Amino acid sequence: MKEMKLKVENYIGFDDDGYLEATMFVGNDDNPILNEKFSVKDMVKEFIDVRSGTTGFDQLCIKQRDLLVKTLEQSIEMLKKAA
Fold first, then answer.
1. Phi and psi dihedrals of 26, rounded to 5?
2. Same domain, 68 and 56
3. Do 33 and 59 belong together in one domain?
4. Who contacts 51 (Cβ-Cβ below 8 Å, separation ≥6)?
5. 12-21: per-residue pLDDT in tens?
6. Count of the separate structural domains present in the chain
7. Above 90 in pLDDT, residue 25?
8. Which residues, listed in sequence order, are joined to residue 35 by a DSSP beta bridge?
9. Integer CA distances (angstroms), 59 to 25, 44, 71, in order
10. Residues 8 and 46 in one domain
11. pLDDT one-digit tens code per residue, 27-77
12. Same domain, 1 and 28
């Protein structure tokens, strides 16, 4: 049996259009084997769809929602201060 090792590098960040980008590279190749882009707005919509019902957020999800709101607000402030 032979052993093979692969060097895998991941990048997660924002692309030039403001989408969240997840990229995976193998070895020293500049061409990613995986390159997925996600809209932060769509991720928030999915969060709402999954965790809320007809009467709003379930009691168990309110803490998650509040933490997400706080994190997004802090991120917006950081962006404003950096501009």
1. -115, 130
2. yes
3. no
4. 57, 58, 61, 64, 65
5. 999 999 999 9
6. 2
7. yes
8. 23
9. 41, 18, 20
10. no
11. 888 899 999 999 999 999 999 998 888 888 888 899 999 999 999 999 999
12. yes
